[in-house]
Amino acid sequence: MAGAASGQSDCRGKVGGYAYDLTPLAQKLGAVDLQTQDTRSQNYYYRVCGVVSNNFCQTVDDMTPAVCQKDSRIPAEFHDLGNQKTATFSSLPNRPDDAGFTLSYSGGQDGRASKIDFVCDPSKDPGEFSFLQEDPIKTYDLQYVSNPSLSPNPVPPCMGSACCLYQFGSDPTMTRTLCAPQCQPSFGGFTLIFNWTMSPCTSDTCFFHKKK
């Protein structure tokens, strides 16, 4: 199931019943471009929640490239692989919606496009960026495997009065609270450890120290 990114941002999006936010990951990485290389020595650049920093990636038609390729020719040429403002979120192939998502960009140079599979993996901190394949021609598949900073929040069908406290694994310092009509037992590696009633339940009132 696909969903558009919020506004013109590629930081936040919904996949099925889950909401993803890349802002914490972008803050952890800082103002840097992720880089990787394919088997033909072509380099790929991607900026989480931003535009790649290399001005050679910009074109007259696209001043906000999210993904860029530097080919292996001498001298090298740079190719825009997708406009940041075209970002869409969709499900990973053959994976549940809480395991990650695919972030797609279009509108690149000469019809180029790119897809980045974001895969949740607690062992990766902050993550690993890699090239997968070019399929079909001019569509570039990349992958970013990252730690729980990618873990999603369930999107409740409506706001309820149940305030749910979740903990990631056995780490008491990594918790999340959310409002829902009913607390689900787990999501994305987080397990429900406590719940209480809060009326009204909002993001401002649903905190563990305010339980009643």
Automatic annotation (TrEMBL):
<dbReference type="GO" id="GO:0010008">
    <property type="term" value="C:endosome membrane"/>
</dbReference>
<dbReference type="GO" id="GO:0005802">
    <property type="term" value="C:trans-Golgi network"/>
</dbReference>
<keyword id="KW-0732">Signal</keyword>
<keyword id="KW-1015">Disulfide bond</keyword>
<dbReference type="GO" id="GO:0000139">
    <property type="term" value="C:Golgi membrane"/>
</dbReference>
<keyword id="KW-0813">Transport</keyword>
<keyword id="KW-0472">Membrane</keyword>
<protein>
    <recommendedName>
        <fullName>MRH domain-containing protein</fullName>
    </recommendedName>
</protein>
<dbReference type="InterPro" id="IPR044865">
    <property type="entry name" value="MRH_dom"/>
</dbReference>
<dbReference type="InterPro" id="IPR009011">
    <property type="entry name" value="Man6P_isomerase_rcpt-bd_dom_sf"/>
</dbReference>
<keyword id="KW-1133">Transmembrane helix</keyword>
<feature type="domain" description="MRH">
    <location>
        <begin position="9"/>
        <end position="152"/>
    </location>
</feature>
<keyword id="KW-0812">Transmembrane</keyword>
